[in-house]
Amino acid sequence: MTQFRSNENPMFRSKFSEDIFKHKYAHTGCETWSSLAAVLVEDVCQEHMSKEDKDDLANYITDLKFIPGGRYLYYAGRPNKFFNNCYLLKAEEDTREDWADVSWKSESCLMTGGGIGIDYSVYREEGRILAGTGGLSSGPIPKMQMINEIGRRVMQGGSRRSAIYASLNWQHKDIDKFLECKNWHEMPVGNTGFTIAQVKEQDFNFVAPLDMTNISVNYDTDWLLNYWRTGEVGEIFQKNVKQALSTAEPGFSFNFFDKEKETLRNACTEVCSEDDSDVCNLGSLNLGRIESIKELSDIVELATKFLLCGTLRAKLPYQKVYDVREKNRRLGLGLMGIHEWLIKRNFKYEVTDELHQWLSVYKGISDSVSHKFSEELSISRPVANRAIAPTGSIGILAGTSTGVEPIFAVAYKRRYLKGGTRWHYQYVVDSAAQELINIYGANPDKIESALDLADDYKRRIKFQADVQDYVDMSISSTINLPSWGSKTNNEDTVEEFTNTLASYAHRLRGFTVYPDSCRGGQPLTNVPYSEAVDKLGEEFEEGVEAHDICDITGHGGSCGV
Prior knowledge:
Elements: H1 15-25, H2 33-45, H3 51-62, E1 66-68, H4 70-75, E2 86-90, H5 96-110, E3 115-119, H6 140-153, E4 164-169, H7 175-179, H8 196-202, E5 213-219, H9 221-230, H10 235-247, E6 251-254, E7 264-265, E8 272-273, E9 278-279, E10 282-286, H11 293-313, H12 319-328, E11 332-336, H13 338-344, H14 353-376, H15 392-398, E12 411-418, E13 422-429, H16 431-440, H17 457-468, E14 478-481, H18 494-504, E15 510-515, E16 524-526, H19 529-534, E17 539-541, H20 549-553
Parallel strand pairs: 2-3, 3-4, 4-5, 5-6, 10-11, 14-15
Antiparallel strand pairs: 1-10, 2-9, 6-15, 7-8, 12-13, 12-16, 13-17
Helix pairs in contact: 1-15, 2-3, 2-11, 3-11, 5-6, 10-18, 11-14, 17-18
C-alpha cells in the first residue's frame, strides 16, 4: 500500500481519490493537498491557536487523519469563507409571511454552497379554510416542492447541485400524503404508460417530485411512550416502514424526552437542533489512519479546537444564522474509517470492547476540550460536539470506509458529478479491501461488505445504536437492503423489521434504508473484483441507452416535465 509523505502532494490510495481533490478542492494557492491543509488551518485558526498546534493540525490533515467538512476544503484560501456544510431551517408560523421567509432563507443558504433541512410541521393541512381570504390551505407538501425547485435551479458556486431535507411530524394530518409523496413507482409520466421510476432507470436526472429532497417523519415522546406502554407502533410507523423498505423513503427522525424539540436536521440528518437558522460545522476523524489511542486523543483535541475556531471565522448568509451560531456554537466532530479500523484488526462489523475504548476517548476528549477552549476564547460553550456525517467525498479522498458504514463492496462502479451537471463513472476497488488483499492475501470474495450485510439488518441497526451512545447529535447512516420483492425484503418481512426498529428507536436519532435499485439509478454498482482491476481508474460517461426521454414524454427540448 502506498504511503503518504509529509509536505508534498500525498500519494492517494487511488486515482479516484486524487481526482476528487483535483476537481473539487484544488485551486490557485492550494495546488497540493499539503498546501491546502496549511492554508486552511491558517484561514480558520489564525491567532487563536499556537503555531505548534497549527503545525501539528496541518500535518494531521495532510496525513488524512482528520479532514474538515467539504465546505472548509472548498473555501480554503478563497475570499468568501462559507465554511459550513448545511443550515437547519424551520417553518415557524403558518402565515404568508413565513412561507415567503422560508423561501428567502432557503435560497440564501443554498447559494453559499451549503445544504438545507426544513421541518414543515407547523403548516396546517391541505384543505383548511383560510380565515383571512376564505380560500383553502395547500398544506406543507406544495411548499416542499417549491423549495425543491429552488434547489434544482441553484447551482452552488457554479459547481454542484443542492442537498435538501424535509420533515413532518407523525401526527400531522397530511402525514399519509407525505408518506407517499416520493412513491415514484406509482406515479405516471403523462400518458406514456411509464412510471417515474421506470423513466429514471433510463435517465436518473429526470425531473421528479421532491427529487432534490430527502424526507423523513418526526417521531416524538408521545409515540415512544405509547409504544412502551402498549407494544404497538401505530399505523403511521408501520406505513413508514413499508414505504421505506420498498422506496427508501421516508426516513425516521427520533426526538425523545430532552431532545423532543430537536426536530430540525441538516441535509444528511446527522446534525440536530430546535433553533431555526442553526448551522452545522463538520469535520471527521479517520480511524483507519490513526495509529493509537494516544494519537486519537491528540487529534480529537486539535480537531475540536479547529471547529471552535470555525465558529469565529465562518461567513454566514444572514444575521439570524450569526445570532444562533453565537448562542449554540454547535460542533460536528465525526468519524469515518470505522470499518477499515475493524478490518485491520480482523474484527467483524460490530462494536468490540476495543472500539468502545476508542469511542470513549472520542467522546470524553471532545467534551472536555470544547468546554475548556471555549472558556479560553471567552465564547459560549458548544451545546453539542459530535455528529457523524456520511463523509461521501472526503471519505473517497481519504480512501477509507465512509462514516460508520461498512465498505459498500470490494469493487464497484461509482457515479459522480463532474463539471456540475455531467454524470461520470469510474471503476473503484475499495482501498481498505485492497489493503487486506495486498498485505494479508485476503480473498476478495470473502471480505465482508454492506452487500453481505444486506440480509442482516439487525446487526446493522445494533451497530448504529451502539455508536450512537457516544454521539450527542445524530449519525447519518443508510442500511443497504435487497430489492423490494426479494426473498429477504418483502411483505412477509415488514412486521419483523418494524418491531426490530421500534425496539432500538430510543437509542437512535435517525434511521434510513436503501433497498437495492429502488430509485432506478444509484451512485454505486457492485462489479466483480477482476473487472474493476482491469478498468481501474478509467473514467467514462454513460448516456441514455434504451431511448431518449423526450421520446417517452412526447415533449421536445428538455422534455418540459
